[in-house]
Amino acid sequence: QKYEIIFKRMLFNLNEMLSVLCEDAAKKQFHNEADIKGLRNQIDRFALFCRRSISKGKYEGDAVIGWELLTFITHTAHLIDYVYTYMTKNKVPLKSRALETLGELKGHIALFTEASQRKDIALVQKILEKREEFLFNKTISLLEHSEGKEAVVSSYVRELFRQVQIGASPLLSEILEAQ
User: Is the dihedral of CA 40, 42, 44, 47 positive or negative?
Assistant: First the structure.
């Protein structure tokens, strides 16, 4: 039970990191790097706790799937930290298209969180169905229309969408296993 609480907290922190990124990008002011790093470090600590639980056999599901989900969350948190740090150091102003795509990413990760909490296959399916739209249309178009430092940020945004798609697979496996 403690594992589930910690796992939910990791997802909450991930959503919080993305919210800070989106808000600061919209304001074009990046003063929350310490908060981002703090959330990332907390996610890393939570992941270590959960991995110890898995190693000790205290995890109720498939250990490999649980480990994969933890890896997805930590990789996503690290990517958010990397893009935030890049935007802070390089003072990258985003155009409206990039800001809109970041907002869609926020919704996509919120959908992942909801699917995980509700153990809802239909929500995971929605994530998987958006693969074409986000990975092959919107983010490619964003990259094509970005220049300079904004192109670097666009690349990170595309990678974050890809992470959500990758994370949907073990999430779906976990839900199916629990049924």
Answer: negative
